[in-house]
Design brief:
Number of helices: 45
Strand content: under 5%
Oligomer: single chain
Shape: flat
Length: 1031
C-alpha cells in the first residue's frame, strides 16, 4: 500500500513538472505531449494515471484569473485528453463533470472551460460511449443557466458541437429559449455563433441584428453570411437584413453587412450583377432597400459603368432597306422594375458626383480646380451617354411603359423621376415635355367594376393616379419642366379648370370629381405661396366655392375625403382661414362617418397648429367671450352623436369632445388603420409639445389635455390603437425633459389624471372586482409613470436656459426648478387631494388615497423651498391621520417627515397663514389648512372609528408609592367620534401624560389592556414585561 502511494506521488511529480514547463510557451506543447504520453504508457494502469493526473490539476481549479500561463495549461490538458485513449478520456470527462457542479464558481468555470476545449478539439472518429456524452450534454444544459456569464459561455460552446445531431434538437430549442432572455452580450454572441442554420433559427438570428451590443450584431451578420444561403431566406428577411445592416450606427456592423452583400450574395449568387441582386429583393415592395443597396454598391465601386450599357439600349430603330426612306419604325423594349431602379439610382449618383466635383472646382483654383472640373465633365458625359439622346425619346419611352399596364407602373415611375436630370431649357424641348405633363395630369383614374356593376377606384382614391409616390413623381417632373416662378401653378390651374367644368355643370360622375380634386390637391400641396394662385385661369375663391366646398358636400364618401384633404391644404395656404372652409370642416367632423371625420379632424388640427386655435375660432365669427367664465376653466362637455348642427364652441373644445366620445368605434371598419382617437391623440401631443408657440391656448387647458392623453394611453380602450400608443410613448419620453413649463403642466395634470382613472370616484364606473382591480392597476401604473417623468432631468439646453434666466445664486450643477415645476408642488397637490375626502371614506376613496400616499412618499424635496417644506410637514400629519389604518404606509410617511425635518433650515420658525395661502395660490389650489395641527407624524396608527372607545389602560404600581400614583385609574368610555372629525386624539394625550409620569420615577410598571389595545405598549414596558399583557 505504501509502495502504491509512493508511486502515485512520483507520478504526480512528473506530471506536475511537465505541466509547469507548458506554462511558459505554446511552442513546447508538442514536445511535452510526447513526454506526458510516455509517462502515461509507463504507468501501471489507466486508473492510476487518471487519479494522479486529476490530483495534479486540482490547483488549476482554484486559479480565478484567466492569466496566459493558466490558459496555456488548459489548452495543453485539453490537447492531451484528445489523444486516442477513450478510457482515459471518459474517466477525465467524468472528473470534470464533478467539478462543473461544484459550489465554487472558479471550479465550475475551469471544469466547463476544459470540457469545452476538449469537445471542440476532439476528432470526429473518437470513440466515446453514448452514456458519457449524454452525461456531458445534460450537465452542460444545466450550466447554460448558471449565474456566472463565463460559465454559461463555455457551456454553450460545449453544446455547439452537438446541435447538428437530429437526436439533440432539444439543444437548439434551449438556445432559442435563452437567447432573448440572456443579459450578457458575450453569451448572446456565443449562442448566435453556435446556432445551426434552419428555418426555425433564421428569424432568431435576424432578430439579433437589432441587439444593443455591436459584437452580437456583427456576429449575426457573420452567421447569416456563412451559414444561410440567399435562397433559404424569404424576400422580407433579405430586405430586413440589408435595411438594418446598411443603416447600422456602427461602422463595423455596416461593413460586415456590406461584406455579406458583396462577397456572398452578389459574388456567389448573382455573378456580380447588381440587377440580379435587386431581383432577390423585390424592389417594387422594398424600394428604399433597393436604393440603399445601389447606393452602397456605387459608393464601394462595385457597379461597372464603363461597360457601354445605357437606357438608349431600350430604344432601337428599324428602317427600311432604302436608307433614304423617311419611314422608320421604332421598337421600345420594356424595362423590368429592377432595371428601371438600377438606372435611376445610377443616373442620380452620377449627377450628384458631378455637382460635388463642380462645387469643389469652384472652391479651389489652379491645377486642383482643373482636375475637379475634368472629373465633373467626365461624370456629366457619362450621364449624357446613359440618358436618352432626346426628350422626345424619353417621352416615348415613358409613354410605352405607362401603356403597358399596371405591371410596369413601378418602372414608369422610375422613368418619370429620371426627368429631373434632363435639360428643358430649350423652348421646343420644353413644349414637348409640357404636352407630356398635360397628358399625365389629364390621365383619368383607373377603376374596376365589381360584381354588382359598381365602379371601384384603384389606389388610395386621394392622390393623382391613386398613389402618393406617383403623384410626387408627376409633380417633380412638372416643376422641372415649368421651373419659372408661377408657371407651375398656372399650368396646373389650367388643368383644374378643364377637369372641374363638368363638376360645376353637375354632369360629372364621382370618378371625375375625384380626378379633378386630386389634381387640385397636387397643386395645393406643392404651391409655394397663396399669391401665386391669384390671377390665373381659376381664382382661389372660385376654386373654393365651385369645387372644394361642393366636393365636401358630395353624396359619395370618397369624393368627400379628397375634398376635405384639399380644404385642409387650401386653409394652410390662406393668410387667415375662411369662414366657409372652417364651418364645413367642423360640420364634417361632427356629422360625418368615421372616414370623413378622420379627414376633417386632420384638417382642423393642421389649421389649428398653423394659424393658431384662436384664428380658426375667429373665422367662425362666433363671440366666445360671451360664454360664462366657469365654462372656460374646463372643457365643455359635448355629445357629438346628439348634435344636429355646428356647435358654437371653440376648436379645442370641439376636438377634445372627440376624445370623450365613444360612438366613433362603432363606425370603424375592421381594416381601418386610423381612428379618431389616434388622430386627436397625435394632434394634442403636438400641441402640448409646441405649447410655447401657442400663447392663445389658456394655460389651464394644457393639464387637462395632458391628463386625457395619459388616461388614453393607459386605458383598455386604446389597447388596439397601436399607432396612437407608439406616438404617445415617444411623446411622453421627451415631453417632461424638454422644458420646465412642461413639468409644471405635468404636475398640474397628475391629480386630474388619477381622478379620471380611479374607479368608484369622481363619477367613474366601477364594475366587477376583476374590472376594478385592472382599472386600479392601470391607474397605479400611470401614477408611477408620471412620477418618473417628473423626476427625469431636463435636457442640457433647457437647463442652461434655466440657469441663465434664474438666479445666479444657484450652483452650476443645480437643476433646481420652481415650486410649480418641481416635486415640491406635486407633493402639495397630492397631499391636498388626499385631504379633500372625509375621514369616513368609501372603499374606493380609501384605496385612492392610499395610492396617492404611496406616490407621495417617493417625492424628494429640495432645501431651497423652505416654505413648501414647512407646509408639507403640516399636511403630512393630516395625511397620516387619514390613512392611519395602514401601518406600513404611516411608517413611510413618518420617514418622509424625518427627511423633511432634516432639510428644514429653520425648524423653530412657524409657517404663517398668509405664506400657506400664497403657496396654495401659486399652485392654483383652494384649500384651508389649520396651522394649529401638530407637525410630527403620529407614531401609532389608530384607525378612526365611530364605535365607542374601549376603556384606556390601567397602570398599576407594583411597589409602594404615593396614593395618587398607586390608586387605580378608571376611565369612562369615550363617546363615539363624529364622522370626518380631524381633532387630535385624547388617547394620544393620555398616553403622553402617562409616559411622562413613568419616566419621572424609576418604578417598574405593569400594563393591562384590552385585546385591541395599542400595539406600541412595548415602548412603555421592557421586553420582559411585555409578556405580562393580560386580557
Amino acid at each position: 500500500m505504501a509502495d502504491v502511494k509512493v508511486e502515485e506521488k512520483q507520478l504526480m511529480e512528473r506530471i506536475a513538472r511537465i505541466l509547469d514547463e507548458t506554462r511558459t510557451s505554446n511552442a513546447t506543447h508538442n514536445r511535452k505531449l510526447k513526454e506526458l504520453w510516455a509517462v502515461r504508457s509507463k504507468s501501471p494502469s489507466t486508473a492510476q494515471f487518471l487519479s494522479a493526473f486529476s490530483k495534479t490539476l486540482v490547483p488549476l481549479f482554484g486559479v480565478q484569473r484567466r492569466t496566459p500561463p493558466a490558459e496555456r495549461v488548459v489548452r495543453f490538458v485539453s490537447a492531451f485528453a484528445c489523444i486516442n485513449d477513450h478510457e482515459f478520456l471518459e474517466g477525465f470527462l467524468r472528473f470534470l463533470l464533478i467539478g462543473s457542479v461544484a459550489a465554487n464558481r472558479t471550479a465550475r468555470f475551469r471544469a466547463c472551460q476544459i470540457v469545452s476545449e476538449i469537445i471542440m478539439r476532439l476528432p470526429d472518429d473518437t470513440e466515446v460511449s453514448d452514456e458519457v456524452w449524454d452525461e456531458v450534454i445534460e450537465c452542460m444544459k444545466v450550466r447554460v443557466g448558471d449565474k456566472v456569464p463565463v460559465i454559461r459561455t463555455f457551456a454553450v460552446r460545449s453544446l455547439s458541437r452537438f446541435v447538428n445531431d437530429s437526436d439533440n434538437s432539444d439543444i437548439v430549442c434551449l438556445f432559442l429559449e435563452v437567447l432573448p432572455l440572456e443579459q450578457n452580450a458575450e453569451v448572446r454572441k456565443t449562442i448566435v455563433l453556435s446556432v445551426p442554420p434552419s428555418n426555425a433559427t433564421s428569424q432568431a438570428i435576424i432578430d439579433c441584428t437589432l441587439d444593443v451590443s455591436e459584437a452580437v450584431r456583427k456576429a449575426a451578420y457573420c452567421v447569416l453570411a456563412n451559414k444561410f444561403p440567399l435562397q433559404s431566406l424569404s424576400i422580407k428577411q433579405r430586405a430586413i437584413i440589408l435595411q438594418r445592416g446598411l443603416a447600422d450606427r456602427s461602422e463595423a456592423v455596416s461593413k460586415e453587412c456590406l461584406k455579406l452583400m458583396k462577397d456572398q450574395w452578389l459574388a456567389n449568387y448573382c455573378c456580380g450583377n447588381p440587377t440580379e441582386l435587386l431581383k432577390y429583393l423585390d424592389v417594387e415592395t422594398y424600394e428604399l432597400v433597393g436604393e440603399s443597396v445601389m447606393e452602397a454598391l456605387l459608393k464601394d465601386g462595385l457597379v461597372k459603368l464603363s461597360d457601354g450599357g445605357s437606357i438608349r439600349d431600350y430604344l432601337s430603330s428599324a428602317s427600311d432597306e432604302n436608307e433614304d426612306s423617311l419611314h422608320c419604325t421604332r421598337s421600345i423594349q420594356l424595362m423590368e422594375a429592377e432595371i428601371a431602379l438600377y438606372w435611376r439610382t445610377v443616373c442620380r449618383h452620377l449627377q450628384m458626383e458631378a455637382q460635388a466635383k463642380g462645387s469643389e472646382a469652384a472652391a479651389t483654383s489652379g491645377t486642383e480646380a482643373a482636375v475637379y472640373a475634368a472629373e465633373a465633365s467626365d461624370k456629366n458625359d457619362l450621364l449624357e451617354r446613359i440618358l436618352p439622346s432626346t426628350v422626345s425619346d424619353y417621352v416615348e419611352l415613358v409613354k410605352n411603359h405607362i401603356a403597358a399596364g399596371p405591371n410596369y407602373r413601378f418602372a414608369s415611375r422610375q422613368l418619370l423621376l429620371l426627368g429631373e436630370m434632363l435639360d428643358f431649357s430649350d423652348t421646343t424641348i420644353r413644349k414637348v415635355a409640357s404636352e407630356f405633363v398635360q397628358d399625365l395630369l389629364h390621365r383619368p383614374l383607373e377603376y374596376e367594376v365589381d360584381d354588382e356593376g359598381n365602379k371601384v377606384v384603384i389606389g388610395d382614391g386621394i392622390n393623382l393616379g391613386g398613389d402618393k409616390d406617383w403623384a410626387d413623381a408627376v409633380s417633380r417632373l412638372a416643376r422641372k419642366v415649368h421651373a419659372a416662378t408661377g408657371e407651375f401653378e398656372e399650368v396646373i390651374l389650367e388643368v383644374v379648370k378643364d377637369l372641374a367644368r363638368p363638376c360645376r355643370e353637375r354632369a360629372a360622375d364621382f370618378i371625375q370629381w375625384m380626378h379633378s380634386l386630386s389634381v387640385a390637391g397636387l397643386l395645393l400641396e406643392n404651391a409655394k405661396s397663396f399669391h401665386l394662385l391669384q390671377g390665373k385661369a381659376i381664382e382661389s375663391a372660385e376654386l373654393l366655392q365651385s369645387l372644394l366646398i361642393p366636393g365636401a358636400k358630395h353624396v359619395h364618401l370618397d369624393v368627400q375625403r379628397v375634398a376635405l384633404r384639399c380644404l385642409g391644404l387650401f386653409g394652410l395656404l390662406e393668410n387667415k382661414p375662411s369662414k366657409e372652409l372652417v364651418k364645413q370642416l367642423r360640420l364634417c367632423f361632427v356629422k360625418g362617418p368615421s372616414t370623413i371625420s378622420i379627414m376633417a379632424c386632420k384638417a382642423l388640427i393642421d389649421l389649428g397648429m398653423w394659424h393658431g386655435p384662436q384664428e380658426v375660432d375667429k373665422a367662425t365669427e362666433h363671440d366666445f367671450s360671451l360664454q360664462p367664465s366657469d365654462d372656460k376653466m374646463t372643457f365643455t362637455p359635448i355629445k357629438l352623436s346628439e348634435t344636429d348642427e355646428d356647435l358654437n364652441i371653440e376648436l379645442l373644445h370641439l376636438l377634445y369632445s372627440g376624445l370623450q366620445t365613444s360612438y366613433w368605434g362603432k363606425c370603424l371598419e375592421s381594416d381601418e388603420n386610423e381612428s379618431i382617437q389616434a388622430v386627436l391623440g397625435e394632434g394634442f401631443a403636438k400641441v402640448l409639445l409646441l405649447s410655447e408657440n401657442y400663447p392663445s391656448i389658456p394655460a389651464y387647458l394644457r393639464p387637462l389635455l395632458l391628463a386625457k392623453l395619459i388616461n388614453l394611453y393607459f386605458s383598455d380602450e386604446s389597447r388596439d390603437l397601436q399607432r396612437l400608443k407608439q406616438c404617445l410613448s415617444i411623446f411622453f419620453e421627451h415631453y417632461a425633459s424638454l422644458s420646465a413649463n412642461h413639468k409644471k403642466c405635468l404636475s398640474a395634470a397628475f391629480v386630474p389624471a388619477m381622478r379620471s382613472m380611479w374607479p368608484g370616484i369622481n363619477g367613474n364606473a366601477g364594475g366587477s372586482s376583476f374590472v376594478v382591480s385592472n382599472k386600479r392597476k392601470h391607474a397605479v401604473q400611470a401614477s408611477k409613470f408620471m412620477l418618473q417623468m417628473m423626476q427625469a432631468p431636463l435636457y442640457a439646453k433647457d437647463r442652461q436656459a434655466q440657469n441663465e434666466s434664474g438666479g445666479s445664486e444657484l450652483p452650476e450643477t443645480s437643476e433646481h426648478l420652481s415650486l410649480e415645476c418641481g416635486e415640491e408642488g406635486l407633493g402639495i397637490r397630492i397631499a391636498t387631494e388626499g385631504l379633500s375626502f372625509q375621514m369616513k371614506k368609501t372603499p374606493a376613496e380609501k384605496s385612492y388615497v392610499s395610492a396617492l400616499c404611496k406616490i407621495l412618499v417617493l417625492l424628494n424635496f429640495q432645501s431651497l423651498e423652505q416654505g413648501a417644506i414647512k407646509l408639507m410637514q403640516r399636511l403630512l400629519y393630516r395625511v397620516s391621520e387619514s390613512v392611519s389604518a395602514e401601518k406600513d404606509l404611516v411608517k413611510e410617511l413618518k420617514q418622509m417627515a424625518e427627511r423633511l425635518k432634516a432639510v428644514d433650515r429653520h425648524p423653530d420658525e412657524e409657517l404663517s397663514q398668509d405664506e400657506a395661502k400664497l403657496i396654495f395660490g401659486r399652485l392654483g389650489l383652494d384649500f384651508n389648512l389649520e396651522l394649529d395641527a401638530p407637525v410630527a407624524v403620529p407614531h401609532t396608527p389608530v384607525p378612526c372609528s365611530t364605535r365607542p372607545s374601549r376603556s384606556r389602560r390601567r397602570v398599576r404600581c407594583e411597589e409602594t408609592s404615593s396614593d395618587e400614583e398607586c390608586s387605580p385609574t378608571s376611565v369612562q368610555p369615550v363617546p363615539p367620534s363624529a364622522p370626518g372629525s380631524r381633532s387630535t386624539r385624547s388617547q394620544r394625550a393620555s398616553k403622553t401624560a402617562a409616559m411622562s409620569k413613568i419616566t419621572a420615577k424609576v418604578i417598574p410598571t405593569k400594563i393591562d389592556e384590552d385585546d385591541d389595545g395599542e400595539e406600541e405598549s412595548s415602548e412603555v414596558t421592557s421586553e420582559d414585561e411585555s409578556d405580562q399583557f393580560t386580557d
